[in-house]
Design a protein that fits this description.
The protein is built from nine helices and six strands. By secondary structure, the chain is of the alpha/beta class.
């Protein structure tokens, strides 16, 4: 069970997330806060696995709250949940110690995937934001090296599944899968989806 705390100054968003995970077998909301000061108090009491936090909040903003939480509790993963898609905001949150960044325009399934990903200690970035792989130490990938999720998608590609079928299987959006495809093509130095499919088929017995 992934224990989460939500920090958001709009109570309606908190209510919506709490309702979404009310009967979830894998995610439990153990606390919520409407400002950064309250967030720090709840984190100290509850010691959650993941903190979902907005950036713009009263008293203590998301940047400062993230820094303080990671300094005191480095094992807690931070997922930014915000409307800001500017590169500067993304960079500041990742620099403060956030493991993931998801936009409020995302589907609830996308948010769920983000929570589960960062809970494993893996980076998760909304497909609608730009994150430089080379510029982010937490997401740094050597040329030809895929993440665990990308290998999982590659295995589905080898099975001949479409992006829609893969998205349904992984409970995420088609856009996310298409973004992963583009990133894999770039990382592997390939030229288009045709080469990606051939690569996937050649590697289908190497997944571990």
């Amino acid at each position: 069970m992934i224990r989460i705390v939500i920090a958001e100054d709009h109570q309606s968003l908190i209510d919506g997330l709490e309702l979404q995970f009310e009967n979830d077998d894998n995610i439990q909301v153990v606390g919520s806060a409407n400002d950064g000061e309250m967030l720090l108090e709840i984190v100290e009491k509850k010691k959650p696995d993941v903190v979902i936090t907005d950036i713009r909040m009263p008293k203590i903003d998301g940047f400062a709250a993230t820094k303080l939480i990671k300094k005191e509790y480095p094992e807690i993963q931070i997922l930014a949940f915000t409307m800001f898609d500017q590169d500067e905001a993304v960079s500041q949150m990742l620099g403060a110690g956030a493991t993931g960044y998801v936009l409020k325009s995302s589907s609830l399934n996308e948010v769920r995937t983000a929570i589960e990903t960062v809970a494993r200690g893996e980076a998760y970035y909304d497909p609608n934001i730009n994150v430089s792989i080379e510029g982010d130490d937490k997401a740094k990938q050597k040329k030809g090296e895929l993440t665990k999720r990308q290998k999982e998608i590659l295995e589905f590609i080898a099975q001949g599944k479409t992006s829609r079928e893969i998205a349904d299987q992984l409970f995420t959006s088609v856009y996310t899968i298409e973004t992963h495809r583009k990133n894999m093509i770039k990382i592997l130095g390939l030229h288009g989806n045709g080469e990606l499919l051939r690569y996937a088929i050649e590697k289908k017995y190497d997944f571990g």
